[in-house]
Design brief:
Blueprint (H helix, E strand, L loop, with lengths): L23 E2 L3 E4 L6 E5 L2 E2 L7 E4 L5 E3 L4 E3 L9
Antiparallel strand pairs: 1-4, 2-3, 3-5, 6-7
Length: 82
Amino acid sequence: MPVAGLPKQAAPPQCPSEGDALGVDVLASYFPYPGDCTKYYACPPHLVGQPSTAQIRQCPAGLYWDDPNAVCDFPFEADCVQ
């Protein structure tokens, strides 16, 4: 239920469902969090065919999410515009 005075949050991205030959999505996936460079979405590794929910993560203080490099980095190095 939306809370009055707070912006409506977009639905989290879909976590990928492809995997390796063993049926495990070995690599985690990451996505930028719209409108806030200090946050990002992380999809944990999971079994193929099993749903995985993107989790909101927070970069350490003073760092921005740098999506092309999939790391939190200094704002002047990060490819993120708020």
